[in-house]
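Team,

Forwarding the record for the chain on the shared tracking sheet. I've put the sequence and predicted structure together so nobody has to dig through attachments.
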Amino acid sequence: MEEETDINELSESNDELFESQAIECAKGQEPLRIDKFLMSRIEGATRNKIQQGIENEHVLVNGQTIKSNYKVKPGDKIVIYQDFEPESTDIIPENIPIKIVYEDDDLLVVDKVAGMVVHPGSGNRSGTLVNAVAFHLKQQNPGITEENLSRFGLVHRIDKNTSGLLVLAKNTHSLSDLAMKFFKHTIHRRYLALVWGDFEEDSGTVVAHVGRHQRFRKMFAAYPEGEHGKEAITHYKVVERFNYATLIECRLETGRTHQIRVHMKYIGHPLFNDELYGGDKIVKGTVFGKYKQFVDNCFALCPRQALHAWQLGFVHPSTKEELFFESPLPGDISSVVDKWRRYIHQRK
């Protein structure tokens, strides 16, 4: 039998469907019950645990829920959600301030600050958004069990140093419903980014595969010929021009790890002060005199990549109401945008 093709990295780094594993069945896959199929591919998982996950709609095949007796076939795309992640139940509630912009019995929407890791992981076992939300839920319901705490889940993530809106599910129904909406790209999401350089056109689309960098494992890279990585499509439009930098709005048609950051670097417009992708130095303009001092001052005001998850909209899993949220640019990015406005105005 051929090896399965890994289809992880479903969204913008840590802005991704929060799966613990994603598999695409190989062309030579023989018909096999999905619970048996997954037992051989999820370390430490029992058949009972897998069947519970399927029953709780934490396993999707081609974007649809299935029964335990479903037989996998060639080309099936299987996504296994949070309950199967080894550390997903080991969540320590911590009293960390967070900005909740909406909450009901099914979900909550949080406006994350830059600098906060979203989920506990290697090297980040505490101080994360998930730890903070667990504490919030514990305050609401002191009798909540660890098992129930593990049922609230991330549907997508954003980078530590990216700010903005995230939705979290508070039960398995909402998790499954929202995950499927992300899978089918029916969620409204828009990002604002300050990038280096000016654009010839007012809008455009970047199409280039995104995959892990083949030399530097912490980075991702664009592969225009599709030899490596996964298909990635980013639509952008100009919001405001500053000659040497531009404020743009981005819409992701796909969601790969670091997609916006990688695609903008690929077309020669790295995000302003993005240390990982070359935006933390002067890309456009002179490297001497007052201009250099101006840019250094901007870097000091916004010591992270200038990327913000600006808008989030979706149909509520239970009420079917259309919800829409908008988060204004945070102070660090807006201060830098204001400085660029004044700088360009003074040069006219």
